[in-house]
Amino acid sequence: MNIAPEVLELVPEMKAWRRHLHAHPETAFDEKQTSAFVVEKLRSFGLEVHGGLAKTGVVGVLRGGRDAAVGLRADMDALQILERSGVPHASLHQGKMHACGHDGHTVMLLGAAAALARRRSLCGTAYFIFQPAEENEGGGRVMVEEGLFERFPMRAVYGMHNWPRKPLGTFATRAGPLMGAYDVFEIVVTGKGAHAAMAYTGKDPMLFAAHTISALQTIVARNLHPLDAGVVSVTQVHGGDTWNVIPQEVVLRGTVRAYKREVQDLIEERMRSIVAGVAATFDMTATLRYERRYPATVNSEAETRHAIAAAAAVVGSDNVDTDPTPEMTGEDFAFMLQAKPGCYAWLGTGRGPDTPNVHSPQYDFNDDALAIGASYWVALAEQQLGTQTA
Ligand SMILES: [Zn+2]
Ligand SMILES: [Zn+2]
Average pLDDT for residues 330-339, to the nearest whole number? Predict the structure, then answer.
C-alpha cells in the first residue's frame, strides 16, 4: 500500500471529521452544516473557495501555473433512514443517516485537498467538487446546469464511491457503462369502489394491480434482447383501507434500470401498452407517469486508463479489477460524465461477506479506507496535472 505521507499524517483528523459528519447527516439540498464544514476546512488549507452552487454545493480551487485542470468530485448528502448501526458516532438527526458513505467521500476529498495544498507541487489546477443531493434529487445535474464546467473549465472529471461488496484495499472500474440509468414510474388505476361481498357491482383495481405487476415482468423476459440489460421493479402498492371494501383506486410505483437509451424507450413503450391493455381488459382507467431521473454512468476510455493507473499506484495493479460486472444502481455523476470525459471508480471497503451494504441501516463507512481513497485522489491529480519538485 502506497499512502501519501501527507495523507498518513492527516488520518486521525480525517477520522474525527468523518465521525462528526456521520453524526450530523443532512439530506438532499439541505446539507447546510456539511457545506459550511467543507468551506471552513478548504479555507483553512488555503484554497480558493466557491459556495452556493446547486444551493449547498462547494468548489475548492488549488491553482497551479499551467493551463491544465481536472475536477475531483465527492457527494455530501445522507439518506432518510433510521440508523441502527450501534456505533458511538451514530446519527443525532432522527430519521436521517449517512448510509451511503458520502460522509467518507467528503472526508477523502478534503484529505486530498489538504495533502495537495501542503505539497504545493501541482503544475495545473485541481477543482475539488463537493456536490449535494446525489440520492434521488440529482444535485450533480443541477451543478452542471448552473454552469459548473463553464465557471471552472476542466479537461476531465473523476468520481469515486465506496463499495462494501469489494474488499478493502482494492479498486474496480471499467471503460463504458459502470452503473445503470435510473427511471421511476407511477401507475394510477381508477376502478369503482364496492362492498367486497358484492364485487360484481364494482370494478376492482386490485385485480388490475395483480395482473399488471405480473405482466410488467414479461418486458425484460420477453421483449428485451437477452444480451441487453434491464430491470423493472414494482416497489410500492397503495390501495384499500379495510377488510370488506373494494377501493376505488390503487397506485403502483417502482423503478426501471437500463444501460441504453433504446432499452429505456422500449421498456417505457411496453409499459404504456401493458397498462392501457390491462385497464381496457378490466374496463377501468389507468395512467402511467414515467420519469427519467439519471442517465447511465459511462466512463470514457482514456480517463479510465488514468484512473486505473492512479489506483494501481496506491494499492498495486493486482488489486485493481479492470473488468468488474457493472451494477444497475444509479449515480448522478452520470450528468457530469455526459458533459465531460471522466471516470467513476469503486473503492473496496468490505471487511468480509457480512459487511452491511450501502443503504442498510446497519452500515457505517469503513474508516480504514480514508487514507486509501485520499491517496488515490492525490495520485490522480499529480499524474493528470504534473508536479514540480520544490
Ligand atoms: Zn446511495
Ligand atoms: Zn452513494
Answer: 97
